[in-house]
Amino acid sequence: MKYSKATNYALHTMLNLAMSNSSKPIGVQTLAEQQNVSPTYLSKILTKLVKEGMVSSVSGANGGYSLTKGWESISFLDIIFAIEGKSSLFECGLDHGPHCQIQKVMLESEEKMEEELRRQTLAGLVQTSK
Amino acid sequence: MKYSKATNYALHTMLNLAMSNSSKPIGVQTLAEQQNVSPTYLSKILTKLVKEGMVSSVSGANGGYSLTKGWESISFLDIIFAIEGKSSLFECGLDHGPHCQIQKVMLESEEKMEEELRRQTLAGLVQTSK
DNA sequence: ACATTATAGAGTCTTATAGTCTTTGATTAA
DNA sequence: TTAATCAAAGACTATAAGACTCTATAATGT
């Protein structure tokens, strides 16, 4: 069980966008270079972030991507969910009785991680990354 | 990112072993039936648990698997590590500076989950599953 | 010896990840 | 209005991991 590389790219891209406090949008070309990944691949990741409303995009010359208003409070969990999806890490598919205690414990532990990831915001990340 | 089915089987198998407080070992055949999984596949999972010292096995007629001494304090995390491995869920492979803050945050959140999984023991699970 | 059981290895099938390539559509600058 | 620049979307491919199966071997009890 591992986070996908896409999640790593997404997190770093969000940080890059947040750090470059430019009013102009930044092209995928530039963002891709900063992480040594292909622009077309990164664009798919960015599209997911756009669909979740964290990033806005403009086509055409001088276009690119920029963070949307309120970006400061975007959490790690928001970004991770945008890429990995929101479904639980553990699902007991076994058909045994109504309440699986194992499932319960696994979900509770997952919640602990998510609490922490919810607490960590983009603004906080920028602060410590300077 | 999902836990493997093998982890699910492992957790349920450990619970089954713990619940059947029999002094005699239990064959993989029996254990497999309880979860609707093939015996040969489950045996591979059990072998991992044996190698981690949580389960002991005896070959031959009337052989099978049983929990080792001190099983009560085996944690969810122990079982999960035995199947999924101990490596971190997130690894920033990017070559940018010495301390990646993203990596740090991700690891901290992971630790929260692991803390909880360490707290949850087999004995506790048996208690609530009765 | 023989039945029973775990262990180990190789092999298969499916799915997810991690991309690439190409086309289309929007926007701006000349 | 045309060309250049950019994002979005779809189809495609390659690799690896997950989820098994099958077969052979080794250990143990009757």
TrEMBL record, chains A, B:
Q: Which InterPro entries match?
A: Tscrpt_reg_Rrf2, WH-like_DNA-bd_sf, WH_DNA-bd_sf
Tell me, what is one Gene Ontology molecular-function annotation carried by this entry?
DNA-binding transcription factor activity
PROSITE patterns cross-referenced by the UniProt entry? HTH_RRF2_2 (PS51197)
Q: Which PANTHER family match?
A: RRF2 FAMILY PROTEIN, WINGED HELIX-TURN-HELIX TRANSCRIPTIONAL REGULATOR, RRF2 FAMILY
Q: What is the name listed in the Swiss-Prot or TrEMBL entry for this protein?
A: Rrf2 family transcriptional regulator
Where is it found, in Gene Ontology cellular component terms? Answer: cytosol
Write down the superkingdom of origin: Bacteria
